[in-house]
Amino acid sequence: MSERTILFIAEPQAVSSVFPTLKEAGVQAGLADTLAGALNFIKKTGPALVFSRPALQGYSAQDLLAEAGDGFPPVIIFTKNGSAEEAQRFLDLGARDYWLEPLVWDKIRLALPRQASEPAAETEAEPQRPVRPAASSRFQVIGKHPAVLRVLALARQVARSKATVLISGESGTGKEMFARFLHHNSDRADKPFVAINCAALPEHLLESELFGHEKGAFTGAINRKPGRFELADGGTLLLDEISEMDMGLQAKLLRVLQEGEIDRVGGVETVKVDVRVLATTNRDIEEFVREKKFRQDLFYRLNVIPIKLPRLADRGEDVFLLAEFFRDKYCAACGLPRLALSEEARQWLLVYPWPGNVRELQNLMERAVLLAGSGPIQPRHFLMDSETWVPEDESGLTPEAAPARPASPGEALSVMPLHEMEKALIFKSLDATSGNRTQAAELLGISVRTLRNKLNEYKQQGLDIP
Ligand SMILES: Nc1ncnc2c1ncn2[C@@H]1O[C@H](COP(=O)(O)OP(=O)(O)OP(=O)(O)O)[C@@H](O)[C@H]1O
Ligand SMILES: [Mg+2]
Q1: What is the rounded CA–CA span in Å between residue 277 and residue 255?
Q2: Which of 280, 310, 340 lies at the terminal end of a domain, its last residue?
C-alpha cells in the first residue's frame, strides 16, 4: 500500500482546489472517472484512501464497493447534496464514511493512516512523542461506572450464545458498538458481521435487502441478489432501529427467526441460514407494543436478552475516561502530543447534559483537538455557536466559561455543520499564522479577498477576529 497516495473518482473541477494542498503535504493524488480506471489505479499504486462521488456518468460507487475485498483501500463517498438515506446506504454497502463538500486537507489528513498524514520531518521535529492509540481501540469499550460494568458483564456472558439480543438506549449511547462487541466476543468472530438500518429503507426495499430477490422479481431486479441474511450466514446480523420496521415485514422476520430459513422475494424455494440476530432501538419499544405498532410476539422473540445502555449523563466520571480516550485518538490521528484537559474543561464535561451521549462527546473532542492548537483544551474549544449553554445549577461555571451549545437538531450527528467547520478552519489558520491574512488564505487554499469577506461576516456576527 502506498500510504501517501489518494485516489479521487470525481469530475476534475470538483477536486482541483484541494490538489495543491495535497501536493504541499507530500500526498500524491490520482483522478479517475470510470470503474475500470479506478480499479487499474488501485491495483497499480495501492492508494491509502479512495474518495468517490456517489455516481458519475457511466460510473456508480456501488459497483466500486462491490469490488472491495481484502486489501482494498477504504472508500469515502463525498457529495455536494447528501442525504441521511444515501449516507446509510453507502455505509451499509461498505463505505468507510460519507462526507459533504468541501473536501479540506485538515479533514482528509485525519482520515489517512497516521504515518501518511504527517510528513516525516514534521513528526521528528515534534519535541513530545505523539500519542498512539491502543491496537484494540476499535472494540475497546471504555467505562468503569457500575451501570456500564453490569452491561459489559452481561454482554460477555451472552456473547457466545446464539440468543437474540435487543440493545436499547438513547441515540449515541454505543448500541452498535456493543453489537460489534458481542460479535467479536463470539465464536462467530471470524464470520461476517452485517448491519442494516431498518429506518433507512421503504418496506419493499428493506424486504429485498433482508431476504434477497430472484432475477425479475420486480421492475429493476435485473439479477438475483442475496439478502443480508444470506450475506451474514455463519455470522451476525444487526437489525438497527428495529422499531421502525413495518408491521407486514415484522411478520416475515418473525417467521425467519423461528424457522431459520428465508424466502427470497420472487423465489420459490426457501434458503436455510445460520445467523445470530442482534437488534437495536432508541425508542421505548414496549410502548410501541402497547400501541400495537410493534408485534408483541416479535418483541418477545427479539428481547430474549435485553441490554439497556445508560445515558452518558448517568455515567458519572466515565465522561472523563471517554473524553481522554477520544482526545488520545484524535491527537494520535493528527500526530499531536497529548493535549491537556484544563480543569474548567473537565468541570464543563461533568455538568453538560449530553443529549447526544457518547457520540456527541466524541465529536466535541475531535473538534476541540482541532481547535486547541497546542492546548490545553478549554471549554471554549468544545463548541461554538451563537446560543450559549449555561449550566442551571451552582456548578461554579460562569457564563463566560460556558461555551456555546451545539447546533440542535444536528447535535447527535457525527458531522459538524459545514459553516462551522469552515469557521473553525479559518480561525485555526489565523492562529497558526499569527493573524497573517495572506499566509492564512494560502493555507486554506482560498484568496485573501474571500478570507476577508468571511472575516467581515464573522465580525458582523459579533466575533472577535484575531
Ligand atoms: N463505551 C464506549 N467506549 C468507547 N467508544 C464508545 C463507547 N460508546 C460509544 N462509543 C463510540 O461512540 C460512537 C457512537 O456509538 P454507536 O454508533 O455505537 O452509538 P448508537 O447507540 O448506535 O448511536 P445511534 O442511536 O445514533 O445509532 C461510536 O464511534 C462508538 O465507537
Ligand atoms: Mg447506531
Answers
A1: 13
A2: 310
Residues 322 and 286 in one domain: no
Measured in Å, residue 113 CA sits from the centre of ligand 1 at: 22
* Ligand 2 mean position, distance from CA 89 (Å): 14
Is there a domain that residue 134 lies in? no
DSSP string, 370-406: HHSTT--B-GGGT---SSB---SSSSS--TTTS-BPP
Q: Is 168 left (phi over 0), alpha (psi -120 to 50) or beta?
A: beta
Average pLDDT along the chain: 83
**Is the CB of 359 within 6 Å of ligand 1?**
yes
pLDDT tens track for 73-119: 999 999 887 777 787 788 888 888 888 777 878 778 878 876 544 43
Select from 176, 183, 167, 166 the least CA-distant residue to 301: 166
The predicted structure's pLDDT at residue 312 = 97
pLDDT for res 442 = 78
Distance, in Å, from the CA atom of 59 to the CA atom of 36, rounded to the nearest integer, reads 9
**Angle between helices 437-444 and 448-460 in degrees, nearest 10:** 100
**Rounded distance between C-alpha atoms, residue 265 and residue 277, angstroms:** 20
Its domain, for residue 363, covers 317-460
Segment 237-249, tens digit of pLDDT: 999 999 999 999 9
The pLDDT of residue 391: 53
DSSP state of 137: G
Cα 239 to averaged position of ligand 2 atoms, centre (Å): 10
**Which secondary-structure segment (H or E) carries 193?**
strand 193-197
175 lines ligand 1 (CB under 6 A): yes
pTM metric for this prediction = 0.60
